[in-house]
């Protein structure tokens, strides 16, 4: 079969950054009149790879060197043992990775993809690019020169792909219009109201339909919920420490089932005042009824009932917390009425103004704040639908057991907060909203239940749990369920739990619960083969972390590890903790069994492969 004479861009993203890079690469290719196709990697089958001539991969690395969820099936296919060293002969490829050098496995996914493609006979167009969030310009600092090298290399070996050459001379308004993806249709009839009146839906059912409709009409190719949400309401909001609370939520819509280890994805509510301000700033009619289609996809959205414009903005467009990308500033430059603002925007998107734009964006201004800074800009709604970052769900580990609380979902929520370079205080949209919910007001929380990366363990499986900080959240559900089963007379295996926090008097989350389980005969008691050990990192001169407590209990850890059924679970903030815990396990194995460090590491890697070593981390 003749190979396809175009540039194919495949992206694998966990949070949306790789998608942004891939879309920019597509736009730059189109400006050079390069035939190009862009796809999320989940929509491309690895078996079709030999039919392509030129493929660019944009991939992120998540957690501790993990493959993004949408890429897992593709990567599994690429590792098939039947593939030969000439399977990709004639395929030219390039890889750009997004990572963080603060992690041990920096850009691991991009590196291993590059190696695998080369081993299968493909030829690299250009050296793999490694974007680094730690650099002064973020990943863009590496992306710009890498992209320039890509165009130069492509032109050298196949100038038909780039008939205008590797350099860009600029783009005009007509070329910009070709990049418009959204088609908005306005409706006179209130079909949504007619449907609701005909079906006599409850307020909650109406809300769920609106959210499902808004999310489905979003033209973002970033992964989004594909079903109607469930609704929860807070019945108890318990403050665990200064910035962490436990939300006990009741299911008030259709029944929800889940296992311990599952994750609840929450769609946050944006400030109503900010949503109204955005609509007013953009001269939009909040009462208009609209349908939105992707212009270049076979989409059935036009057949769906319309949605009120305000509801679409509220449930699908992140106007109050997410920062707009570089392309937003480029499009703004075409829709500004003030020459001084036009010049500033054009400077921002130029090569010379890259540093200035980066400094401006470091303040993490929201879409609304950016539009307020450039008051003469009037972007048509069709462009806003395309450019405003989608309102994404935020994932929280479920910290309850469905067996114990059959109609409830509990969450452990830490309010995210930080300061910008100019010392402006910012807080996370979802965590601050959840933490501020008053049980008396009974506001609905739209959620979806998803499988997490921590599988639900059988009660007969011995466990070693490591969960510092809010990493303890899923383990609260694990142990709550085991306590319940034990009370019914079921046999439960021993559990070792290592918890860590800064100070005993300030952030010892769920202290009474853990200690009650540690009493004689409890599921965390030493007399049942388990144990509960806490590392207070700031209560003494030298910092003490969970890995130190693990080594103190080396014999107990080793005893459980010797049981082939034992499973290790690690949860918490990403960074050094997971790798430090991994090395602590290796040190314990070396000490207790007199094997080499290399052998211990290989045994731990085998445990990971066999599903006995699980890690769930978040930034």
Q: Remind me, CATH topology of the domain at 4-170? A: Rossmann fold
Q: Tell me the total number of β-strands.
A: 22
From the alpha-carbon coordinates, what is the Rg to the nearest angstrom?
Answer: 26 Å
Termini separation comes to 45 Å
Low-pLDDT residue intervals, each spanning 5 or more residues: 195-199
- Residue fraction in strands: 15-25%
Indicate the overall shape. globular
Quaternary state, please? single chain
Q: Outline the biggest β-sheet.
A: 6 strands, parallel
CATH class of the domain at 4-170: Alpha Beta
Based on secondary structure, the structural category is alpha/beta
The number of helical runs is 22
Helix content: 25-40%
| CATH superfamily label of the domain at 4-170 | Flavodoxin domain
Quick synopsis:
The chain is α/β, with parallel strands linked by helices. It has 22 helices and 22 strands. The strands form five sheets. Strands 1, 2, 3, 4, 5 and 6 form a six-stranded parallel β-sheet that branches. The protein has a six-stranded antiparallel β-sheet with strand order 13-10-17-8-9-14.
What are the SSEs and their pairings?
Layout: E1 4-12, H1 17-31, E2 36-40, E3 52-60, H2 72-78, E4 92-99, H3 108-119, E5 123-124, E6 129-132, H4 140-157, H5 173-177, E7 182-187, H6 191-199, H7 203-217, E8 230-241, E9 244-251, E10 263-266, H8 272-281, E11 289-294, E12 307-308, H9 309-316, H10 326-332, H11 339-348, H12 354-361, H13 367-373, H14 381-387, E13 394-397, E14 408-414, E15 417-419, E16 425-427, H15 429-435, E17 444-450, E18 463-466, H16 473-487, E19 495-501, H17 504-507, H18 511-518, E20 531-536, H19 546-552, H20 554-561, E21 567-573, H21 577-593, H22 597-609, E22 613-618
């Amino acid at each position: 079969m003749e190979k396809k004479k175009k540039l194919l861009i495949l992206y694998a993203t966990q949070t949306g950054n790789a998608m942004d890079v891939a879309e920019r690469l597509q736009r730059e290719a189109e400006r050079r009149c390069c035939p190009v196709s862009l796809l999320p990697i989940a929509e491309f089958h690895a078996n079709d790879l030999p039919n392509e001539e030129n493929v660019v991969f944009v991939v992120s690395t998540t957690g501790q060197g993990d493959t993004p969820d949408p890429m897992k099936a593709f990567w599994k296919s690429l590792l098939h043992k039947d593939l030969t060293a000439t399977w990709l002969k004639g395929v030219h490829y390039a890889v750009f990775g997004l990572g963080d050098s603060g992690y041990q496995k920096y850009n691991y996914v991009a590196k291993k993809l590059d190696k695998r493609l080369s081993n299968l006979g493909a030829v690299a167009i250009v050296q793999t690019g490694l974007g680094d969030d730690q650099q002064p310009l973020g990943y863009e600092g590496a992306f710009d020169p890498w992209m320039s090298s890509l165009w130069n290399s492509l032109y050298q070996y196949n100038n038909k792909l780039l008939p205008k050459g590797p350099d860009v001379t600029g783009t005009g308004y007509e070329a910009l219009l070709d990049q418009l993806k959204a088609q908005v249709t306005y409706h006179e009839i209130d079909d949504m109201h007619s449907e609701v009146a005909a079906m006599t839906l409850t307020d909650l059912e109406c809300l769920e339909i609106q959210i499902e409709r808004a999310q489905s009409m979003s033209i973002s190719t970033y992964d989004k919920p594909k079903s109607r949400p469930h609704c929860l309401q807070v019945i108890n909001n318990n403050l665990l420490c200064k910035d962490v609370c436990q939300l006990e939520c009741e299911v008030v819509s259709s029944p929800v089932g889940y296992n311990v280890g599952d994750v609840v994805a929450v769609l946050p509510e944006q400030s109503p005042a900010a949503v109204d301000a955005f609509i007013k700033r953009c001269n939009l009619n909040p009462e208009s009824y609209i349908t939105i289609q992707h212009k270049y996809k076979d989409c059935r959205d036009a057949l769906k009932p319309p949605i009120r414009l305000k509801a679409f903005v509220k449930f699908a467009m992140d106007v109050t917390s997410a920062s707009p990308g570089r392309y937003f500033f480029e499009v703004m430059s075409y829709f500004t009425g003030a020459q001084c603002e036009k010049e500033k925007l054009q400077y921002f998107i130029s090569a010379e103004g890259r540093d200035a734009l980066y400094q401006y964006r470091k303040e993490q201004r929201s879409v609304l704040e950016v539009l307020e800074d450039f008051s003469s800009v009037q972007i048509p709604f069709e462009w806003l639908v395309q450019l405003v970052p989608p309102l994404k769900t935020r994932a929280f580990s479920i910290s309850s057991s469905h067996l114990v609380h059959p109609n409830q979902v509990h969450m452990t929520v830490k309010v995210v907060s930080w300061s910008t370079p100019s010392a402006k205080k910012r807080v996370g949209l979802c965590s601050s909203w959840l933490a501020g919910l008053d049980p008396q007001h009974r506001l609905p929380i739209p959620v979806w239940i998803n499988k997490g990366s921590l599988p639900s363990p059988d009660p007969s499986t011995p466990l070693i749990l490591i969960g510092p900080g809010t990493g303890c959240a899923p383990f609260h559900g694990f142990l709550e369920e085991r306590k319940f089963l034990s009370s019914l007379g079921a046999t439960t295996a021993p559990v070792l739990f290592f918890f860590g926090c800064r100070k005993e008097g300030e952030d010892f989350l769920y202290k009474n619960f853990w200690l009650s389980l540690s009493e004689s005969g409890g599921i965390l008691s030493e007399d049942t083969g388990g144990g509960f050990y806490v590392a207070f990192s700031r209560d003494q001169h030298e910092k003490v972390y969970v890995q130190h407590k693990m080594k103190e209990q080396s014999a107990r850890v080793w005893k459980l590890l010797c049981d082939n059924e034992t499973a290790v679970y690690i949860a918490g903030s990403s960074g050094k903790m997971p790798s430090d815990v991994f090395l602590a396990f290796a040190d314990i194995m070396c000490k207790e069994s007199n094997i080499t460090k290399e052998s211990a590491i290989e045994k731990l890697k085998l445990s990971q492969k066999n599903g006995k070593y699980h890690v769930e981390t978040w930034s």
